[in-house]
């Protein structure tokens, strides 16, 4: 069965500093990996995905993520955090091949302090 | 195309009542998913459709829950005899048959009192 772990419930970072939100996954085969962001009382918004190819994936709002197969990780990063990045971030995984639905982590709350 | 639309945005109901939520996916998306999200948790999969066929149901989906997608367009999720534990945000998402991600609606927040 596929699963996702987000080991940090909360990440605090000062505005302008780099940020990292951690994610590790478990699948039986190869993964499709995703990051989503959620603002209060809203649905999830897609940030980026890894399907195949380059391990460094660039997404919306200056975010990027690095796929590391040996460590089964897909950490979300941004070189310089903004206060407006404060939100809830979810990592998700899906097994390849197959039609299994996305499985989400429990989320990490990012707080960027001015 | 205005994305995935969910109605109502909020629903307050008394324990024991039935409720129904509606989801209108992106028109060209053939897959539609329902998830449930409680405070402090990530979205938990409930069920999904490919066109009008319901292909998978989670064990979270008790007999009180039923979902339909007639004609492969909009979908409804009904909860019968609601319980306080059903209080959650119910999220709908749609996608194409590909490794693309899902597009989520804004959700329906259910409060059972």
State the largest interface: A-B, 25 and 26 residues
Helix/strand order of chain A, N-terminal first: EEEEEEEEEEEE
Write down the overall mean pLDDT of chain A: 93
3D shape of chain B: globular
Please work out how many helical segments of chain A DSSP would assign. 0
Sequence stretches where pLDDT stays below 50 over 5 or more residues of chain A: none
Q: How many strand elements of chain A?
A: 12
- Element order, helices and strands of chain B? EEEEEEEEEEE
Would you tell me the structural class of the helices and strands of chain B? Answer: mainly beta
Oligomer: heterodimer
Describe what you observe in this structure.
The complex is a heterodimer of chains A (114) and B (113). By secondary structure, chain A is mainly β. Chain A contains no helices and twelve strands. Chain A has strands at 3-5, 10-14, 19-21, 24-26, 30-38, 44-50, 56-58, 64-68, 73-78, 87-96, 103-104, 108-113. In chain A, strands 2, 5, 6, 10, 11 and 12 form a six-stranded mixed β-sheet that branches. In chain A, strands 3-9-8-7 form a four-stranded antiparallel β-sheet, with no helix packed on it. The radius of gyration of chain A is 14 Å and the shape is globular. The mean pLDDT of chain A is 93. Chain B is an all-beta fold. The mean pLDDT of chain B is 93. Helices cover 0% and strands 50% of the residues of chain B. Chain B has no helices and eleven strands. In chain B, strand 5 and strand 6 form a beta hairpin. Chain B has strands spanning 5-7, 10-13, 19-24, 31-37, 44-50, 53-57, 65-68, 75-79, 88-95, 103-104, 108-112. In chain B, strands 2, 4, 5, 6, 9, 10 and 11 form a seven-stranded mixed β-sheet that branches. In chain B, strands 1-3-8-7 form a four-stranded antiparallel β-sheet, with no helix packed on it.
């Amino acid at each position: 069965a596929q699963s996702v772990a987000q080991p940090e419930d909360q990440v605090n970072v000062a505005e302008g500093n780099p940020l990292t939100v951690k994610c590790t996954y478990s699948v039986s085969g190869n993964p499709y990996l995703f990051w989503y962001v959620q603002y209060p009382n809203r649905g999830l918004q897609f940030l980026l995905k890894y399907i195949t190819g380059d391990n460094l994936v660039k997404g919306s709002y200056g975010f990027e993520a690095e796929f590391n197969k040996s460590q089964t990780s897909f950490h979300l990063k941004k070189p310089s955090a903004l206060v407006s990045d404060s939100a809830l971030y979810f990592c998700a995984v899906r097994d390849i091949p197959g039609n299994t639905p996305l499985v989400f982590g429990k989320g990490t709350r990012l707080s960027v302090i001015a | 195309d205005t994305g995935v639309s969910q109605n109502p945005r909020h629903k307050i109901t008394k324990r024991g009542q039935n409720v129904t939520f509606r989801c209108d996916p992106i028109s060209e998306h053939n897959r539609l998913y329902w998830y449930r999200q409680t405070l402090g948790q990530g979205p938990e999969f409930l069920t999904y459709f490919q066109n009008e066929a319901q292909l998978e149901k989670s064990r979270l989906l008790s007999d009180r829950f039923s979902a339909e997608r007639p004609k492969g367009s909009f979908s409804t999720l009904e909860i019968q005899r609601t319980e306080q534990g059903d209080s959650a945000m119910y999220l709908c998402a749609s996608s194409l048959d590909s490794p693309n991600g899902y597009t989520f609606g804004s959700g329906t927040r259910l409060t059972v009192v």
